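Person: At home tonight, work slowly through the protein below, taking as long as you need, and write a paragraph about the fold.
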Amino acid sequence: MKQIPTDLFEDLPGAERVLAGLRDFHAGRHSIPACLVRMARPRLIKAGMMTAALPHDDGAELDLYQLVSSTEGPRAFSRYNALVRELVSFEHALDHRMAGGVPQQAGNAFRFPSPPHPTHGQAGRAPLA
């Protein structure tokens, strides 16, 4: 197996899990991190971390849920959602880094901007009643 360059992922949220998933995926292991990597495949291909020559994989989400439910039982849905949210944060931060954005600081996850408060109104408009 070739060495996985890790500098692109440094300080990104969830990077440790994605790197573990890349190692598992390339070793042919069926694991939670490997399922996450399969889900993130388009972005990882764009980042040069996976090859586009692999066949399309549309079963990663179901495989992830089955693995999580085998270990988490009734908490599987919450755990699955937490893993997917972490992956989405990783993907957004990776996109930002690849676009030349400011590197993320350790421990900071991608944050969506807060919506405007409905009672504050907008310039030139009356506040909502």
Remarks:
- Residues 76-98 form the longest helix (23 residues).
- The two ends are 63 Å apart (CA to CA).
- Helices lie at 15-27, 32-39, 41-46, 60-72, 76-98.
